[in-house]
Amino acid sequence: MVTISLAMIVKNEENYIKRCLNSVYGVVDEIIIADTGSTDKTKDICSFYTDKIYDFKWIDDFSAARNYSYGLATMDYILWLDADDFLLPEDRIKLLKLKETIDPKINTVMMKYNTGLDLQGNVVFSYYRERMTKRECGFLWHEPVHEYMLTTGPVLETDLCITHGKIPGEKSSDRNLKIYEKKLRKREFLSPRGTYYYARELRDHDRFSEAARQFELFLDTDMGWIEDNISACSELAKCYLKLNQDKRALACLFRSFVYTTPRAEICCQIGYYYQEKKDYQTAAFWFEFILSLKKPVQCWGFLQHDCWSYIPLIESAVCYDRMGDYKKALKFNTKALKVKPDSLQAKQNQVYLQNKVALQRKRKTKGAP
Does the record carry NADP as a key word (predicted)? Predict the structure, then answer.
């Protein structure tokens, strides 16, 4: 059985850290905490789980902090979590099993990162991250913000999931944006990845015109990861819609098809575009088209799971309702209800459409126009 060090960087995480550490305590063999300046009870809480708590002077560089925490690890593999990440009970069991069964030749373990859940606890947004690496490989983190690890050698993709959960309604920080802007003021170079994430930070702060310029700059480098290129097209389209540049927005969505086969997430955006224009026939085409697509199986990019099933079904129902084809609308809504039996919208639609279809039959029987 291999051993695992958990290496974390934290700051003012008293609302989350207990949940995180509870979920892995007794599974990992070592817990290392690199605190970057907490002023709340974070370190006190961590002290119940480990005595390996270190202070790291914050220098506006997440990679530097992570590399510091990794340098303190002593076990076979190093696992990283953020304070608002945690393992569900079933994933805790999977991590225990992974310790027992992993081939020591594996350098990197990819785990699914579930960052979006619906009210019923179903995963609606996920992607894969490099989550555990062999310590002796000495892999390093790169980029000051939205850091990543450049790894080599054998990779294991698992069905073990890390769940991310913040308090609903919690405001997003401008910390990352300030780090990027500080670098730019110092005339420091942003990598293509850095440009992409800077654009996302600008978008998150409603600076849509600036975000659009950065997304365009990123795509023009032609050096981005395919999944980031697709995401950039999607986000660029949203920016142009906010700027009332509809045709440019639509062109951005179609631009994503250059990188790979059409993705359901993009096609949903196209469907919504035509739905907004009240061109329900064209909107229905795109929503139905999604149902012919195969959901990627080995995809490390962002996946909005509802876009591959529930959304195209229920939106097709909406489109056909608007066109007066209630029978076809009911067919799609019935399928949507099977996918999400607890959906209030689908339930309400079902009653409404059943009544519409019954009324049409009654009128037809009576010979009404």
Answer: no
